[in-house]
Design brief:
Structural class of chain B: mainly alpha
Number of helices of chain A: 11
Shape of chain B: globular
Radius of gyration of chain B: 24 Å
Shape of chain A: globular
Strand content of chain A: 15-25%
Radius of gyration of chain A: 20 Å
Largest sheet of chain A: 8 strands, mixed
Strand order of the largest sheet of chain A: 6-7-8-3-9-10-12-11
Oligomer: heterodimer
Helix content of chain A: 25-40%
Helix content of chain B: over 70%
Largest sheet of chain B: none
Number of strands of chain B: 0
Chain lengths: ~325, ~300
Amino acid sequence: MTAVAVEEGLAVQDLHVRYGDVHAVRGVSFSVAPGETLALVGESGCGKSSTALAIARLLPAGAGIEGRAEVEGFDLATARGRQLREARGRIVAYMPQDAMAALNPVQSAGRQIAEVLSFRRDASRSEAAAGAVRLLDEVGIQDPNTVAHRYAHQLSGGMRQRVMLAIALAGRPRVLIADEPTTALDVTVQAGILALVRALVIEDRMALVWITHDIGVVAEVADSVAVMYGGRIVEQGPVQTIFEQPSHPYTRALVSSPRQSRFAAPKAPFDAIPGSPPVGAFPGGCPFHPRCPVALPRCSSAMPETTTVAPLHTAACHQLGGSS
Amino acid sequence: MARYLGTRLGLGVLTVFCVVLLTFVLMFVVPGDPARTIAGPRATPQVLALVRSNLHLNQSVVAQLGNYVVGMLHGDLGVSYVQDQPVTSLIMGRLPATIELGLAGLFLELVLGGTLGVWDGLRTRRSRALAVVNVGFLSVPTFSLAFLLLLLFGYELNLFPIDGGTGGTRIVLPALTLGLFGMPYYANVVRDAMQETLAAPYTRTAVAKGLPRSQVLRRHVLRNALSPALTMAGLDFAILLSGVVFVETVFGWPGIGQLQTQAFYNVDRPVLMGTVVVAAILVVVATLAIDLLRMLIDPRTRLATR
């Protein structure tokens, strides 16, 4: 591969996303080194997908972004026009959850991959087609020559997601944003794709942000974890630390929710977090306080500051004795 | 594929037969006696009887229907009561003019409606502009539109000859009438499809690839957005081909529609029947052609080939 002087990966700083009056992402900061995977975890409505779309710059028209999302000195959050277009696919690529809807129904899989190659690399039609077949092979498709001529509706869910991955990889991006791409897949197919993405990320030295609500996936894919709640990151740290020494009450509840439930529904009721996450309007103070089992009086009035629990491990909770 | 085509053709034949049956029955239900039309109002009963037996009108309805269907299968649609010519040659003589006008009308409909629909679908700021244009054109009946164009461009401005017949620029006004009449329907269908396609996840995928906007639109948006308009155009084409009675009459365009009008006034049953049968056949064929064309464009409608 090409030698890059300084490999920085992705650095997100104080990112905000607003949909009109709804402040969906409220100051999110994290960084991912090249070849590393950050899992962005949280329930529906916590702002994880808005964060993902903001970094990939695919938010719907009318949504506002503030803050920075830098990749090797290039700020994705503020890029515009031609600069932004040049960055798409090359600096940042995006893998969506629903591959069926994300593939053009009237174009063959091969053409949709080749399109990136002919545009990005000035490849001729036949070169691009051959490149598409190579990419399909790279993402672990058994018969890439045949699959290249297939349309989305003729492929299985796992194959469609592999095609999406090939499209994302075609521009050789520095950052890959994966927005729950395996949620709709069978567990075995999911495991195969997780392993594949993991290997490719290390091989290509990409920074991977994997969005998920599935704590089991986190254990399989991530180097580090950022837990989101109410538009904020409430805890962040290396994957082992998060699982073994969670310091935020919300993280503790998440990691103790039974991971085996995907294989067999538990007969005994497990510890569900009471209540549901806030959507749209957030409560004052710590957003988790209405559901928090250990909430203090000041949790409802003051937003806890992010404090360093241990090196690389931060959390935002008044229980941790933050200064404010 | 062969089986699919066989089924479709079989159904098509059945459809045409049903149309023949229905029209035939209608011909006997509607008032008007062809024998009297031919023989004149002062004809004696003997003359009327002679005319009836010459035209086989004294046979039972079932026998007449049987004769008609047998003739039809041999490409014989009978002889006009009025013009003393085979119906098939009358229709064939009119078909080129109708096809010419039909194609021109369809082209204008698609271009005007498609452009308006794409334009409105691409605008990010919503306004009622398209709605105003649409409601405007939808509320104007074809006949007033035809006369308006005729008066303004033909008579006042003298831009186009209005002496009837084909050739030269005579096609412009009737085609424009058809085009403006169909425009709002296409504009609506295309606009809705544009909005849906622009918001589709696959369009977002195309944007995420970093493609220029023109390429996103051309390769990913338009092709998907124009497919419903195509389906509509197929049916429209069949209708236009079977003659647009009113427009052809107003502009004196010698097509099948005009033939039909004359046949109607003359109680010329064979010609009237013939135009209806030809229209039915055209609709069946055009529908099949459109379905095949759609298979070419949209792989999802292709049959599973194993």
